[in-house]
Amino acid sequence: MSEPKVFLLPDLGEGLTEAELVNWLVAVGDEIRVDQPIAEVETAKSMVEVPSPYAGTVAVLHGEPGQTLDVGKPLISVTPAGATAVAPAAAPAVEPAETAEVAAEVYREEEKAGSGNVLIGYGTPGGHGVARRTRPRKSAAGTAVAEPTAPVSAAEKAADDLVLMRTRVPGKLGAVISPLVRRMARDHGVDLGELQGSGASGLIMRRDVEAVIKPSVLERPVAAPVETTPVPPITGAGAGDTDTRTGLGITGRTAVRGVRKAVAANMTRSRSEIPEATVWVDVDATALVEMRAALKKADPHHTPGLLAFIARFVTAGLKKFPELNTRIVTTEDTSGGSSQEIVAFDGVNLGFAAQTDRGLMVPSVRNADKLSARELDAEIRRLTAVVRDGKASPAELGSGTFTLNNYGVFGVDGSAAIINHPEVGILGVGRIIDKPWVVNGELAVRKVTELTLTFDHRVCDGGTAGGFLRYVADAIENPGSVMADM
């Protein structure tokens, strides 16, 4: 009887450590081929289909729809074609620890039998490594006894390098690293953003982190794990459940996960780390609305939307006020101290907020400063469709340098938005409505909108922020003259 091949849930990009299993696309007993989609999973970034690296018969599905799975844990077991299938009913008899160990060993040793396309758009090279035994052995009394951790051998380092290579994402190779490397860097205070990866295409490897950690730190013994009380899973409210603080009945409970979990964490970090300030101004957008109406009359099918024109003004404004197109980076030195620096960019990746069924997403138009209003419009429409379908890549969602937020579509005038960490500024645009406005000393009805800029006070003062905001406002009020200079 042939042992099934166990496929582990791969790193889905950006170093994400978990994913929610949305739907199985296969069932136990199905015959599958290499690269056939087997499951739909949702991460904090996007919805993706996971293809199988093996061909054969589905033996075990490791999870139920709605369950959150950890990266590196078994996803599916496949009996190779032509081999005797292992009965699915036998799966529960295998200990969870044993299953994980077998899965890890099979995944590393037999990966070369698959296509190499562990995930659509995520490449994996050939070759294999040797997995280290980490499962606790059992004593005669049946209690678990932890085995001592073996020194890291050359074979183990090679295996780690191979695992890291499997986490590549096109367009952001240097920023995608395994949970092991991220944890090592975090534990020893290494800023991964400052490392130059020695792997293929700049991939950050474990050896890169080890090279900057002092030997005394590496040799420090690992502390014993702290025992914690298990937290019960969130479930639906039963009949008669009452909130102890308010005395009101509870109608339901919703787990914070996926996109909502990522958004909550990012917004919390933004508010806790960034000393933000907000400035705003009312703008007469009549000339811009009229200019677009004239363009649409001449060419109904290729006229950019108002947001595309404003995006063009924003990128031009960021060139004049580059302080708002930066990022704050904190580094720690060998003495335990830290320092900060402002990192400037050669170009603008303009993010824009898009409301979807999965929550608020912020895709970014790469090199937006090099695009015309018509090109910006096309890319904004494309990215909006991609994120609403849940198909945006990590690079499309995590590479912005400044964000434009059109909350006017919700019928509101203004908002002091939270900066999209680690950016340093976000510009909000309110609804455009008819308002009384003084023109040449006389009262008139004009198309008015409100611009709101929230900025990181560490990178600039109010003069710079006000100058940028006034530039964009003037461009909206006099679009013809401004675009002539672009």
UniProtKB/TrEMBL annotation:
Residues 4-79 form the Lipoyl-binding domain. Pfam families: 2-oxoacid_dh, Biotin_lipoyl, E3_binding. One of its GO terms (molecular function) is dihydrolipoyllysine-residue acetyltransferase activity. InterPro entries: 2-oxoacid_DH_actylTfrase (IPR001078), 2-oxoacid_DH_E2_comp (IPR050743), Biotin_lipoyl (IPR000089), CAT-like_dom_sf (IPR023213), E3-bd_dom_sf (IPR036625), PSBD (IPR004167), Single_hybrid_motif (IPR011053). Residues 118-147, 227-249 are annotated as: Disordered. Its cofactor is (R)-lipoate. Gene3D superfamilies: 2.40.50.100, Chloramphenicol acetyltransferase-like domain, E3-binding domain. Its EC number is 2.3.1.-. Residues 176-213 form the Peripheral subunit-binding (PSBD) domain. It is an enzyme of class 2 (transferase). The keyword Membrane does not apply. Belongs to the 2-oxoacid dehydrogenase family. This is Dihydrolipoamide acetyltransferase component of pyruvate dehydrogenase complex.
